[in-house]
Amino acid sequence: MVYFLGIDGGATKTHIVLSDRAGGLIAEGKDGPSNYHLVGVAEASSNIAAAISRALAESRVDPADVQSACAGMAGFDGPSDKENVQQLLKSVLDGCGSMCPWHVVNDSVAAWAGAFLGGPGALVAVGSGAVAFAVGRDGCSARADGLGHWLGDAGSGFNIGRAGLRAAVAALDGRGPATCLADSFLAIAGRSRQEWVGWIADLDKSISHAHFQLRSFAPSVTQAAGSGDSVALEILDKAGAALAATAASVVRKAGHETAPRVAMAGSVLEESLHLRQAFQTELTALLPDCRIAPVRAAPAYGATLLARKPALVPKDTLQAHGQPPVG
Fold first, then answer.
1. End-to-end CA distance of the chain
2. Is residue 327 part of a domain?
3. 303 & 291 share domain
4. Of 33, 112, 156, 283, which cross-links 130 as Cys (Cβ 3.0–4.6 Å)?
């Protein structure tokens, strides 16, 4: 028996899938985040290794029987990231006892592969970050956003959470309209002004701490919108419009001008009906003949598909590679 390893390494969690030659699920493993820009190479390596170890232990697969691996990694965005991800994957796989060849792509590529099983289509994925990736019928790819929380990730969990927190403190200061988001903020930051101002000041402790706190407020925005809070509803409307613009851009760049297929993925979209509706309404306005396609499989399954069939990775896509040592 031979096996294939798929890794979905994100800003919130790491998901591992071990499959057989036919793509059948053998085992899974999950652990903490593995975007090294947020948690560092050491912690990212540790989390991936822990998830792989769980999958191997559950399945009792010999690491030597893993034929190849593919990792879809958040934060693998340009040539400057190659050295870090190569160091990361090599140390993880060596530590697990696997000497198989491997390759790394951005996590959006693995998500697309899972959504369309390697066929043409456009995917918008929304979790802590937000990115769209599309592959046209000619095999060429296009990507938009996924640029991180400083200048990109429009419509992401991070941006929704930050917008909700901004609205909350504006309401508390009397600078903005009343919203139940203020009560949600006080519940986590403290009721007195001194307490919540201190909570805000603590965001400067580290990027990873601030990123976690801001993205963690997104569910409060979703909950407030569900209760009819007008401020929260407006935040989700703007997020949906931003995500639609991101999706439309890759559809056009990939040449999907006629009846394009667009899939939605990610925890933030899954948890908010209003956000999905806002996204679809704006996307239809931008691309009247588009079709919302179901996601066929999760990103980690997409990564195992690319491990089995590396030729499915578009040739214009950024990749890093590793091979077993000779002898």
1. 23
2. no
3. no
4. 156
